[in-house]
Amino acid sequence: MVNTVSFKKKPHTNGDAPSHRNGKSKWSFLFSLTDLKSIKQNKEGMGWSYLVFCLKDDVVLPALHFHQGESKLLIDSLEKYVVLCESPQDKRILLVNCQNKSLSQSFENLLDEPAYGLIQKIKKDPYTATMVGFSKVTNYIFDSLRGSDPSTHQRPPSEMADFLSDAIPGLKINQQEEPGFEVITKIDLGERPVVQRREPVSLEEWTKNIDSEGRILNVDNVKQMIFRGGLSHALRKHAWKFLLGYFPWDSTKEERTQLQKQKIDEYFRMKLQWKSVSEEQEKRNSRLRDYRSLIEKDVNRTDRTNKFYEGQDNPGLILLHDILMTYCMYDFDLGYVQGMSDLLSPLLYVMENEVDAFWCFASYMDQMHQNFEEQMQGMKTQLIQLSTLLRLLDSGFCSYLESQDSGYLYFCFRWLLIRFKREFSFLDILRLWEVMWTGLPCKNFHLLLCCAVLESEKQQIMEKHYGFNEILKHINELSMKIDVEDVLCKAEAISLQMVKCKELPQAVCEILGLQDSEVTTPDSDIGEEENVGLTSCSTSAFQSNSSLPVFAASGARDDNPTQIAMSPNVSRLTPA
Question: Do residues 247 and 259 lie in contact, with contact meaning Cβ atoms separated by under 8 Å?
């Protein structure tokens, strides 16, 4: 809020004028930069400097007078957030050059929603923006930054990458002043082992590990079997409740029955809360109204390739809506953020029960909530950690991505945000998720899955000299074309390769949760009967350089993920 020179007050519709009863000037004002249309400056050499803001509804706010000059400093600050250009009719007027239509039209939603402008959306709502398909990215993306000045038409793609980097505050690249690093050279990861996968765990195998009171026996062994082969579909409805923490592994059948009764009660009490809200009450509760609007939009875009969600008035879609609205009552502070419906739809499909699906979803969100928080701390941390792992595995590929202004790895944002939900078929995602939920073979296994996919695409990206646009387009078009078993094999092989490395950087050990180069990898000697139906996966077609510089943070471990520091010398891919 800014105090201005007093003169006759003008009506403000977009500028909220706070009351001056609390000591604030009645000329103070507040407005959003998205509402700014133009800025008028004083005529050069005529009195002290001033700026007049004109909003999009033609409201003109009181002038800001700069008695000591330096109005240029404010203009410079504003240009960090909006693009300003001189009006052809009056050089004193700076027009806010919002992203043009060509930019918006160059992106299409993955499920045929209306087009969005990437820069505008990613700064306002990064979750919505990352749901946007990159399949038609063209040079329009750069046109939006060029404006109408022909002299700027040769601006490099790096401007776009720099602009995108501002979308996630705190994700700083090339930070050169961070102290406390040790240089670790000649990291030899050794040969990558061959990994085998088995058939899914059968009902018979599951039953063998249950005692007379219904407790799960040999929990570690059960998790290892699930990690190696997943679950047969008939088992998922029961086993997922354990994997997600809804049922304790050591609970009896009777204890689980009592727990379910309690959870049914609790669920319908919360559901009644939002069901009993009248239209008038909802009009006065903007947050609830916004949550409902977002949920309805997302539910209508649910993947209909699965018969469970076919048809506009399908009961599955209605349950999706009700569960998500109830979750807003359960965690009103977080509420609903776009993308959550992607996490719920497979759970509801497997559970076929509203209450069980809700509590499994709530447990899953306990793991995933940082992805959806406003400050995006979870997403920042994961992108930093992914870049660290990828550089250790293949510094040459990282350098290539950086040279194409793709070192930020934003093309992996959607993978991380909703755990590959839109990259694999509906049935494949069931297999992938249940394997990840075992917590094996290490912490942050999903980051190694990202590395495995990127490693598979490295050759095509580099040999065809893909640039910024082509990389985005190529990664987007991988959707529904990735072999889930192949990726799981490669990711596990990477984890085994890393754990055998005696010189693994401390930063990598912390990311993967390794202590003294030991990992909770499923045993290689899993028994004869468990080797039935094993499938073999070959190792990577290329290995990382046997001798390459890797930089790791030194010092005590900090459990706050936002504080993980990478080397200042590792260019763009490992931000501090």
Answer: yes
pLDDT tens per residue across span 397-445: 999 999 999 998 999 999 999 999 999 999 999 999 999 999 999 999 9
Distance CA 3, CA 63 (A): 10
Report CA 376 to chain centroid distance, whole Å: 8
Beta strands in 163-305 (DSSP E): 181-184, 195-197
- Give the helix, strand, coil percentages of the chain, each rounded to 5: 50, 10, 45
Are 462 and 341 in contact by the 8 Å Cβ rule? The answer is no
Q: Which residues pair with 178 in a beta bridge?
A: none
CATH superfamily of 106-116+126-143+157-199+375-514: Ypt/Rab-GAP domain of gyp1p, domain 3 (1.10.472.80)
Coil vs helix vs strand at 502? coil
Q: Which residues contact 556 (CB under 8 A, 6 or more apart)?
A: none
Q: Beta-carbon neighbour count of residue 207 at 10 Å?
A: 9
Determine the Cα–Cα distance for residues 66 and 487; give it in Å rounded to an integer. Answer: 60
Question: What DSSP line would sit under 430-477, residue for residue?
Answer: HHHHHHHTTT-SSTTHHHHHHHHHHHHHHHHHHHTT--HHHHHHHHHT
Q: Delimit the CATH 1.10.8.270 region(s) of the chain.
A: 252-371
Measure the N-to-C terminal CA separation of the chain; round to a whole number of Å: 33
Tokens representing residue 566 in the block: 């990478």
Closest CA to 60 of 91, 15, 103: 15
Alpha carbons 272 and 181: distance in angstroms, whole number: 55
> Of 171, 142, 137, which Cα lies nearest the Cα of 157?
142
Domain with CATH 1.10.472.80 in the chain: 106-116+126-143+157-199+375-514
Integer CA distances (angstroms), 160 to 96, 327, 357, 398, in order: 18, 37, 41, 19
Pair 430, 421: CB distance under 8 Å: no
Q: Structurally, what CATH architecture does the domain formed by 252-371 represent?
A: Orthogonal Bundle (1.10)
Over residues 446-468, the pLDDT tens digits come to: 999 999 999 999 999 999 999 99
Q: Select from 343, 479, 404, 376 the least CA-distant residue to 168.
A: 376
Determine the Cα–Cα distance for residues 567 and 553; give it in Å rounded to an integer. 7
Prediction pTM value:
0.66
Residues 409 and 379: their CA atoms lie apart, in Å, by: 11
The Cα 263–Cα 257 span in angstroms is 10
